[in-house]
Amino acid sequence: MAKSPTIPEAKIRQAIWMLKKGKTKKAVCDHVGMAYSPKRLDTLIEDFHKRIEREKQLKAKARFKKFSESEKKSMADDYLSGDGLIRGLPFAIDSSPGSSDSHGSAVDNIKSIPNTFSSQRNNARLFFAVGEDIIRLHQYSSINPIYQTGWGSSQIANGDRFKWGWVATYETHQ
Fold it and tell me: Do 76 and 46 share a structural domain?
C-alpha cells in the first residue's frame, strides 16, 4: 500500500464524501491539496479503504485474544518487579511512522493516582515504545514537559488507591 503522510485521514474522508456528492476529481484533488491526478486519488482512497478494513480485522482478532495463565503471571510480575511496563499487547507498535507522527494514544476514563512522583514530576502518562509490544508507565511534569521519565512500581504502589482506567490505540503493520 502506498502511504501519503502529508494527507490526513480527515481529508481523505472528506474526499470520499465529495466524490459521493458528485464533485469532480479535479475539485477533490484541489481540496485535498494534491496535484490533479485521478489515478493517485483513486489509489489514495483505495489504500485508505484497505487500511480501514485491515484495522477492523486486527481489532476483531485482538478483541478475542485469550491470555494464558503464564502471560497473566508475567504481566503481574512485571508490574511488581518495578519496571512500570504493561506487556502482552497483541501486536508490536509500528516503527515506520516518522518521528513527528504519533505511534499511539490513550484517553483516561478514570485516574486516581495518590502516589509519589520523582522531583519536578506531578502526573502519569502512557508511553508507546516503538517496535515493542509494551506500553510504558511514565511520570512527567504538566508544567515543563522536558521532565518525563519511567515511573517505577515502588512509586506506583506507594498509594493505596491506585486506579487508572484507560483506552488506547496504536499503529501496527500486522
Answer: no
